[in-house]
Amino acid sequence: MWGYKMFFASLLLLVMGCETDDTQTVATFNTLVWEDNFEVDGTPDSSRWRFDIGDGTEQGIPGWGNDELQYYTDRSENVTVQNGFLLITAKQEDFNGSSFTSARLTTQGLFEQAYGRFEARIRVPFGKGYWPAFFLLGNNCNDNPWPACGEIDIMENVGDEPTIAFGSVHGPGFFGGDSIGKDYELTNDRFDTGFHIFGIEWAPDYINYYVDGNLYQQITPEDIDEETDGQGEWVFDRPFYIILNVAIGGNLPGPPNNETVFPQTMLVDYVRVYQQ
Amino acid sequence: MKIYTYTNLRFILLLGLGFVAFSSCERDFSDEVKFATFSANADIFTDTPVSLTDEFFVSFDPAIGANTEGFGTDDDIAFEGSSSIRIDVPAPDDPNGSFIGGIFLDRGAGRDLTGFDALTFYIKGSTTATIDEVGFGSDFEEDKFAVGLQNIRLSTDWKKVIIPIPDPSKLVQERGMFRFSSGTLSTNGVGFTFWIDELRFENLGTVAQSRPSILGGNDSRFPTTVGQTVTISQLQQTFNLGSGIDQTISVTPSYFSFESSDPNVAFVDELGEVTVAGTGLTEITASIAGVLAEGKLLVESSESAQIVSIFTDLFADIPVDNYNGFFLGQNTKGGLVEESGGQIIRYTELDFVSINFFQNVAPIDITEMTDLRISIRVEESIDPGDFINIQLVNSVGNPDLTSGTFRIEGGDLVPNEWVEFQIPLSSFTGLGARNAIGQLFFVSDGTISNVSIDNIFFSAE
């Protein structure tokens, strides 16, 4: 009910054209090559998205490698498109041995690209245990297991830090708690009460991170060298694919507590990819 | 320009608002019509009081024990600038009063707080005590839009306290800038000092995710008859702060909109008082700024409903001796505790325990009643064979004593959730007369140790 109301309020703002101006102006790659604006209600477009299902056991990584608590499904109560938004909803329910359900969408095998500008407009849930993300994985993870295949996290958030989002990279020599990245903190605003634009511009020798109109971080091969005393390797020169998910619990956010509100939904207005 | 009195001005404002609503599509007001607006000054105390009344601090009534001596400012301690508010919390035996508390009032007709979302200040203590309450919206007249935050833990270093405003649009003219009260419950009667600085309203932009609740967030049944009234209690609202922490405040009824699904059965006024007007069923719900509150009141009004209440929020309870007699041979600990702004009964180490109402109070005659209603929440896992026996004892201590027992099986209880029972009195095996019931026992023989009890009453169906 609450989510619906917030959502309606957002729509109203759109119509009235007086929403906060969070269009970004720092990006320079402007040739649109792929997008989903989530314009058709129902199941997400299967030519663009596929689902990861389960608790990771089948994939050989129970808890998806992070002791996460959710079971991913493709049921409409966990993932659907409505009124121009992709909705990923995390629920508290007993399901196939897990206590929570959610969804994880990927473009693996459907859209993969090296370099470019990857951008999405997202509103996240709130509360301890929520771990929403918009990120990229190298398309060779099957043959060259993580972290060797590389991960570019465009947006991650933990629900008990509603004013902070963070961007980072993982690769050989810099992964998990030793990934390389940075927090972006809003002043007088939060990530769960309105939409924000999260993006990167990725070129052979840098990844630039921005939120709304603000560039807040650049990661280069030299940074990886310095941060890892020469042990890390820049693995970001091959096609990567896109992932959108809401995880519950796990090593990073810790488990939900008795104040955490379920169900809650991550809303995605669009995902767009550009080339230079 | 004519100066209106405070009351007239507000009346005219209300009329004006109505006019706007009806005529906004017609044409604009002429330039000569100007609405009065009140000061939007945010500051209450920086290094000095800001635009407060001359007395600065208006104490609670000394006749009820309020100590007027312990309030002042301190030029040696400040979070910022040169001065802070210093409050000395007295010991219970202090001849000047056993607790300290009062309000700060705006010097003028009130302030327009619609542009803010919280009252904030910095606080530190001489020790890590807990102060009872801080808040705003109290003017010692109507206290219409009062808000309270209870049990503020002090640190010996400064920390910021944020009290969300439930619905800023209501506060077009508020005089009650600040309220506090504290005794020494948390320090076992040892007096202590706390300091407050940089007290002001702010628009933080990070106070979000409003979740109002009434009646402790529960769906409460209210069997009743025409003409009865009941006031909706336990009005609260939880916000999530920018730090990610949930902050729950107590809120007066005027922040809520109440709605009855059938006003012919019962209607609610703006103070949350429900008046039962006809027979039938109706559901009373509430909301703040369009957000539906958790919890509702289900009014069941009939010709013949009668109630004898042992322990409820909705009905006048009978007097009892105690909620735990600590009898010889009994291990059960516990009794009344606070929860969600109300009281419940919580027992630990339960083997057997009774609510007693026969020693210094009169036992009750429930001959005309037909059912016992009770809510039980087991606070542990439930194993096969677990049970709670409920036993009623009539004519305690007399030769004609009779008692009856009803067994609730563990399978009918749910861990950590309230389960409501309606048990016919005819199911209390062994109970004869019930004209002088004096004890209500809970017996688990240790199969269930931790349990909360609420909403105990007898009804005639």
Automatic annotation (TrEMBL), chain A:
UniProt superkingdom: Bacteria
Annotated signal sequence range: none
GO biological process annotation, one example: carbohydrate metabolic process
Keyword terms of this UniProt record: Hydrolase
Coiled coil location: none
Entry-linked PROSITE patterns: GH16_2, PROKAR_LIPOPROTEIN
Name the record gives this protein: Glycoside hydrolase family 16 protein
Domain GH16 per the UniProt entry, residue ranges: 27-276
Organism expressing this protein natively: Ulvibacterium marinum
Family under the similarity heading: Belongs to the glycosyl hydrolase 16 family.
MF terms in GO: hydrolase activity, hydrolyzing O-glycosyl compounds
Matching InterPro entries: Beta-glucanase-like, ConA-like_dom_sf, Glycosyl_Hydrlase_16
PANTHER family the record matches: GLYCOSIDE HYDROLASE FAMILY 16 PROTEIN, GLYCOSYL HYDROLASE-RELATED
TrEMBL record, chain B:
Gene3D superfamilies: 2.60.40.1080, Galactose-binding lectin
UniProt cross-references to InterPro entries, sorted A to Z: Galactose-bd-like_sf, Invasin/intimin_cell_adhesion
Name the UniProt record assigns to this protein: Carbohydrate-binding protein
Organism encoding this protein: Ulvibacterium marinum
